[in-house]
Predict the 3D structure of the following.
Amino acid sequence: MKNKITEIKPQTIFLIIGLIYGLGFLLFNPPLLGVDNEGEHYDKALYLSDGYIIPQIFDHHAGYYVPEGAYNLEVNFYTLRNMHEKIKIDDIFLFFNQPLNESNKAFTDIDPNPPIPSTAVSFSAIITYSPIPYLASTFAMTIGKILDFSPILLMYMGRLANLLVWLLFIYMAIKITPVHKWVLLMLSLMPMTILVGSSLSADSFTIALSFLVIAIFLNFAFNNNTKKIKMKEIGILFVLMTMLALSKQTYFFLIFLFFLIPANKFGNMKRMLIIFSILFLSTFLISINWNMAVNRFYLPTYLNVSVPLQTSFIVSNPLNFINVVVNTILTKNIILSIITSFIGDFRGYTVYLPNWLIATYFILYPFMLTLTALLDKRDIIIDHKQKIITLITIFVLICASMYITGTPVGQNTINNIVGRYLIPIAPLLFLVFYNNKIKFDIGMGYSLIIICIIIFSLTIAIYLIITGNFIF
């Protein structure tokens, strides 16, 4: 029996825990309130299920026409949230009998100061997202509409479809990566990661796909069994990178992980550069063409936001940009805010757990994650050059991209540094801790500790969500 336990692989552990707790988050997160802007993602998936791709214009605003039943569902639950009231389980069951009423449509962007957040989609970058991260939820909702399901049941079907794709992609990522399998397991089973993975958010697909792309790059770079990379594998990477760039353009910069791969795996340096150039340009052009098609629909929340001008500002003032990064890091409580939103802060309206237990949850997980990154290794050496490439990629993704896309030109701090946005590239961050100096192999004892900490954290998160949001 003990031998069977020790033979269980990290990807199998992920699948078991991820499925159990993923279903828990799916069911116990309040309808359309699971993550930020879930209502907007719900609207978009419904709109796409009608066969539309580009947003529509009404009264100088861009948005989506959604069935009246779906709109009423959003109004009900957002009103409860705005009134800081908990949701009665009986109310959720009542909505299972509400009709979708597809014959009557409501426009989702009417007022710049709407009664519910999801009626101002033109003020959210979500309106510029391509259909790619909504493929699973849109397919599920299309089937549900054929079967005449209610709006709330369509929502749960969309969540379930996203969860299944999330599980599949991350399972493949943990299986493929030649390094940090346990680190990837812990990152994938953080409460915040599962929360997003089991929601209607486009980030569910983006996080899972990002993990898979990173795992493929690491496999190409460090798997000694791969002597030469075939064109078929390059083709798969191109498809995945294009899907990732169309899901969220920020993570297009992961393409620079290409330079982690030794040139001899392509034959020679010249061939490697040619392949990279083709991969880079084709992915970039597809991504930028989509952006040009939909960017006119987006009304930035902040004035004076300009990608070209901000890029020019960084290029002409590189030292000043370093000062911007430092100022952001020194912002009051920013580090604590990033850590809590990275792992998952689910304290809700009322906390029914002692503070020491909550503090243990917030301290123990990042500590064990860092320790695992130091101990989790294989017979693979990652040199300083490869770690520098990783750090540069992280720096560009985290700092420059957020400064360029969401911060007024020349501002001395970066807006919207949220821990959740760092999850898709977190495997790269912890890769910096990889080393062969510490002589320790993760065995049965340590792996059981990891599993216990994961279950401890997820159980606390589920408890806080239930007690903070529901009345039974």
Observations:
- The beta strands are 56-58, 61-63, 65-67, 87-88, 105-107, 470-471.
